[in-house]
Each structure stands twice: as C-alpha cells, then as structure tokens.
C-alpha cells in the first residue's frame, strides 16, 4: 500500500503579493505565518501567549498557522534563513 500525502486546507492562511512580499499571512491581517512561527519555535511562546501578543487573532488562526508551517516547513525555514542572512549583512554594513 502506497501512502499518499494528505493535503490540508488552511482556511485562515493566504498570500497576497502586496503584503509581506507574498509571504503567507493570516487572512484578513498583515501577520505573517513566519511571525507566529518565530514566536512559537524560537521564542518558546505557547499559542495562548501568542494570542496575548496579538489580541486581534483567535486560537484557530494560530493553530492553522502552525499546521501550515509544519506542512511547508522546508520552504519557510529557508525563508527564515534568508531573512537572517539579510539582517546579518545589514548589521555588518551599518555598524560603526
């Protein structure tokens, strides 16, 4: 039996070229999935703590962002690495 990858729909996630250069966002907001992931994975915030930091969001949106991330982890991790490299270059260029 061959296992097929299940495609999950993400009702709270969208992309718009004019918002965050097309990075996935929570629909109806400008909050990037990356912002949620950084808070969850790198800062260790719980979903409830993320809601406290973004009171205009609801818990299902946070969980959908996390689910979207785990489904697209490789490409989003690459975007995080790329942004870190850009920040490092800018810091090096503009430090006195």
UniProtKB/TrEMBL annotation:
UniProt superkingdom: Archaea
Classification via Gene3D superfamilies: Winged helix-like DNA-binding domain superfamily/Winged helix DNA-binding domain (1.10.10.10)
Q: Which InterPro entries match?
A: DUF433 (IPR007367), Homeodomain-like_sf (IPR009057), WH-like_DNA-bd_sf (IPR036388)
Q: Which SUPFAM superfamilies match?
A: Homeodomain-like
* One family name in Pfam for this protein: DUF433
**Name of the protein:** DUF433 domain-containing protein
* Species this chain originates from: Candidatus Methanoperedens nitratireducens
